[in-house]
Amino acid sequence: MIKLGMKELVSAAQGEVASRTPQEVMNLQGKGEIVLVDVRDGHELQRDGTIPGAIHASRGMLELHVDPNSPAFKEVFGEDKEFVFYCASGGRSALAAQTVQRMGLPRVSFLSGGVKAWREMGGTMSPVDI
After folding, report:
1. What CATH number is given for 7-120 in this structure?
2. Which of 1, 6, 72, 102 is the most exposed place for a label (fewest CB within 10 A)?
C-alpha cells in the first residue's frame, strides 16, 4: 500500500516551490527574464498546442534535460533565467519544479492552474507539430 498519494505529493510540492499566476507570466513574457517549460506529453501538445515561446521538456525526460552531464541535456537550462514550468492544470508542473529545484536549478516556479487557467485568462496557444 502506498504511503503518500498524488494529492499529498502535489500539495507538498506546491508548498515548496514558488508559483506564478497566468497574469504574472503574461506580464513577464517577451522580457527575456523567464523560460516557459511545457512538461506535458506529446499527445497533449498535438491536441492543445503550447504557450507561444515555450520549450518542451516532458515530465518523463525532465531530469535528463536539466542535468548538464546527461546526453539529453538542453542547453537552455544552463541560462540564468527563471524557469516557469506548466502542465494541464498545475499538478505535474509543481512536481517538476520541485524536482529541478532539488537538483539545484536556482530560479524555478510553476504556472498556477496550468494551461486551463492560462486559457481562462485569455492566453493564447500555438499549434505544435511533433
Report:
1. 3.40.250.10
2. 1
